[in-house]
Write a structure and sequence with these properties.
Blueprint: H1 24-28, H2 37-40, H3 72-78
Protein name: Cysteine-rich PDZ-binding protein
């Protein structure tokens, strides 16, 4: 669960290169075939996704999103944003096994 403000901070999925080997820029040598642009961009090595870097504040499980403070389970149980911790859902009338 992520609030509207934190949707811009979500990680992006890397897509395959749409250019073919017959492109003129590949023949010139300025581009590589099968190059992943999200990984080869300058300055992305420090912002690269590291899945086991962050831990949840409550249960200490690894979080799956960059800059997240809470895992998806804890965020849903409490009704908060997993990145900033702001209350976004009222869970008082929900029936949950562990609150």
């Amino acid at each position: 669960m992520v609030c509207k403000k934190c949707e811009t901070k979500l990680s992006k999925v890397a897509a395959p290169d749409p250019f073919t080997a017959s492109s003129s820029s590949i023949k010139d040598g300025t581009r590589k075939v099968g190059e992943n642009k999200l990984l080869s961009r300058p300055g992305t090595s420090k912002n690269r996704f590291q899945p086991y870097q962050g831990k949840c504040k409550d249960c200490k499980q690894p979080v799956t999103q960059n800059k997240a403070k809470y895992c998806h389970g804890c965020a849903y149980k409490k009704g908060i944003c997993s990145i900033c911790g702001k209350k976004i859902l009222d869970t008082t009338s929900y029936v949950m096994s562990s609150k």
